[in-house]
Amino acid sequence: ACDLTLDPNTAHTRLSLSAGNKQAKCDRDNQPYPDHPERFEYCEQVLCEESLTGRCYWEVEWSGWGHVAVAYKGISRK
Fold first, then answer.
1. Global pTM?
2. Please, how many CA atoms are within 13 Å of residue 46, restricted to the half-sphere of its CB?
3. Cβ-contact 1, 57 below 8 angstroms
4. Per-residue pLDDT for 32 more than 90?
5. Residue 54 pLDDT > 90, yes or no?
6. For position 54, which CATH number holds?
7. What's the number of domains the chain is made of?
8. How far is residue 4's CA from residue 50's CA, in Å, rounded to a whole number?
């Protein structure tokens, strides 16, 4: 599996990052993240710091509802 780290500069303010930026949790309250041009503002999303190339996989655990997706770094944030 790929060891991925979530990028706090891209995290939507309703996402709380923990465990060394390896986990994200959706909260009702906004997090006090500083403004950043790469931050997602519309949907509760976060990008990884690492770029992926070739074949790779990752393992995900969640409870309740959730989505996992793959996107280019240039995805719209605003």
1. 0.86
2. 25
3. yes
4. yes
5. no
6. 2.60.120.920
7. 1
8. 6
